[in-house]
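Notes from the pairing session

We agreed to fold both candidates in a single pass and log them together. This is the raw record for the first candidate, unedited. Please don't reformat it; downstream parsing expects exactly this layout.

Candidate A
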Amino acid sequence: MARADGTPPAERTFDVERIFSIRKIVSASVFVATLWGLFLSAYEWRFGLGFALGALWSILSYVGIYLIVRVWFSGNRRRVLFVILLACAKIPLLYFLLYQLFAHPAYFNHLGLVLGMSLALMVVLLKAVGAVIVYQTRK
């Protein structure tokens, strides 16, 4: 069905690569982490610091997984060793950092840390819900 001005309706596309690009996810996560980190720091600075550190850990983990998957599926088999080394470095470093964060409860609140760790997942989920809503309204 054509629009009122006679132009054909917009093509319905669900551009996954544009919606879920790593740059958009990381920039949205950093923006939300900064905004909520400052807001929560005004409430209680230990809670805000825990949230900011948890969000940083979540973003680093997400970027690490993205790099591992991207290099693995690039088709260049010479990079398999690089992927294995990247995975072997990512897992111990990030989880050692996480252990250190949970081992020192005097500096920040653990609830803020756990909420911050779920930030990248929340950003991806909200972007997916928003994309589906926009896609459905264009029918």
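Candidate B (folded immediately after A)
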Amino acid sequence: MSQALVSLLPSYSKLNNLEQLRKEGTLNITLNPEKLALPSQDMAQLDLLSKEKMYAWVVYGQLFCPEELAMPGALDLCRVVLSQAYRAPVFRNISIPIHNFYSDAWKNFKSKTFKLNKEKKIIVDGLQAATAGHGLIGMRARGGIFGS
């Protein structure tokens, strides 16, 4: 499962780089007016359609199978995804504060070959990046979002 999730890292990282998308013209539908009526052949545009699903696959896949984080590149993907949003969608308008669940899962994770305790900074850094600019920083400092 981890191999499938880690294979999403290059395309997911590219989708989060707005400057690169603008430079390549991915977000500009009028760049080539002669191709406007044709179906899109650009993989980045097709990936944009499934970005939310990719996010959910990675967030929940790595949450429920933390042993898969031992694979090379998996922690990098986790770092990118946790910095994207404070809450993860569950169903319709229901969402959960994903960083709290990751913290609990990693605290209770036990393995003889892989130690997640050393990687807890990924959760804290992801939370800071996800809440920056959303008015949640003050709440976090008071312990309202993510208990110490």
